[in-house]
Design a protein that fits this description.
The chain is mainly alpha-helical. It has 11 helices and no strands. Helix 3 runs parallel beside helix 6, helix 6 runs parallel beside helix 11 and helix 8 crosses helix 11.
């Protein structure tokens, strides 16, 4: 049995061990509950729109947005919504998803982007398209896929000839979904300062 002098040392050691165990348990729980692209894709596939009422659909879409916002910035940057699934949404639901996935910060940076000289905007767009294609090629490498910007040829041509703000404001919800990876990549370049050369 510990003496009176040793008791505080044992209590302190036990407290330290308990704190470490709690931290480890918290870390483990947080790691398992972290939202990933795979988890979000599973959730997206679990949403059976045809069997849901309007209220259930709205709740499921809000949960999708919450899960998307819970992902890391890197995962959000590389996640793409299933276009076939998105096409089954109503126009109001598409608008809800787009507005929820395009934060106000991107809109502000898009306006700042439009203030840059045309040549600089083209370099940023070229670099962003290259990054998206490389990411797509890397993701598809295991499946034999080729790099793709995710944009239709028509939309890519418009991006290169018109201002992004104009395209974004005039675009359908489907086009906005196609533009989202490009906007995210441009946002990342603007935030990192890699747009001068």
């Amino acid at each position: 049995m510990p003496s009176q002098r040793q008791r505080p040392l044992f209590m302190a050691a036990a407290a330290i061990v308990l704190v470490w165990l709690l931290c480890w348990a918290g870390y483990s729980i947080a790691k398992k509950s972290q939202m990933t692209r795979e988890k979000l894709n599973r959730y997206l596939q679990s949403i059976d729109l045809e069997k849901m009422s309007a209220a259930e659909r709205a709740k499921a879409l809000q949960a999708l947005l919450d899960k998307w916002n819970a992902m890391s910035l890197e995962d959000r940057r590389h996640w793409h919504i299933d276009h076939d699934w998105f096409a089954r949404l109503t126009d109001a639901e598409k608008a809800l998803i787009i507005e929820g996935m395009v934060p106000a910060q991107i809109k502000l940076e898009l306006n700042a982007f439009e203030q840059l000289p045309k040549e600089q905007r083209q370099r940023i767009i070229d670099r962003a398209m290259k990054q998206i294609k490389e990411a797509s090629a890397n993701a598809g490498a295991g499946q034999g896929g080729a790099g793709d910007s995710g944009l239709s040829p028509e939309l890519e041509a418009k991006v290169r000839t018109m201002g992004l703000s104009a395209i974004y404001s005039q675009s359908s919800a489907q086009s906005k979904v196609e533009l989202a990876p490009l906007l995210n990549e441009i946002q990342q370049q603007l935030e990192s300062g890699h747009f001068g050369h």
